[in-house]
């Protein structure tokens, strides 16, 4: 009786690469601005998509630090609550923020904010809609 034994070469163990917070932020920001899927971006960086989703959560919670990318200032028009005319910005001393209403018009959509808002979340929304 002949016995045939087949041997296959074992694949070498995959070495995991440790990502710096800057690299994680860059990958997350790419998922928020590129229009590509998270899975596609994860594959291009040789990262599991679930890991990228975890980094996105950390990013939105402010746990990946601050991005070193330049922030662009957006033009702002201040309107009186009951008037449609553009008002001059106040020149008096700065006071504590008062919850109110805000409407931000961006190329890819409008943002309506009422009351207090998490600034990190608002920043991410504006970055996504800025176009």
TrEMBL record:
Set out the biological process GO terms recorded for this chain's protein. Answer: DNA transposition
One short Pfam name that applies is: HTH_Tnp_1
Which domain of life, per UniProt? Bacteria
| Spans annotated as Disordered | 1-23
InterPro entries attached to this UniProt entry: Transposase_8, Trp_repressor/repl_initiator, WH-like_DNA-bd_sf
Q: Name one GO molecular function term.
A: transposase activity
Family according to the record: Belongs to the transposase 8 family.
UniProt-listed NCBIfam families: IS66_ISRel24_TnpA (NF047595)
Q: What is this protein called?
A: Putative transposition-related protein
- Name its species: Candidatus Paraburkholderia kirkii UZHbot1
Source organism phylogeny: Bacteria, Pseudomonadati, Pseudomonadota, Betaproteobacteria, Burkholderiales
């Amino acid at each position: 009786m002949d016995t045939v034994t087949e041997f296959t070469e074992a694949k070498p163990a995959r070495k995991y690469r440790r990502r710096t917070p800057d690299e994680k932020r860059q990958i997350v920001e790419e998922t928020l601005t590129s229009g590509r899927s998270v899975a596609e971006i994860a594959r291009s960086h040789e990262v599991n998509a679930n890991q990228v989703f975890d980094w996105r959560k950390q990013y939105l919670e402010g746990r990946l630090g601050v991005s070193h990318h330049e922030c662009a200032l957006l033009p702002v028009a201040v309107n009186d609550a009951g008037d449609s005319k553009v008002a001059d910005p106040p020149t008096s001393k700065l006071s504590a923020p008062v919850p109110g209403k805000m409407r931000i018009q961006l190329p890819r959509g409008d943002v309506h904010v009422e009351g207090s808002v998490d600034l990190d979340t608002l920043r991410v929304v504006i970055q996504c809609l800025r176009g």
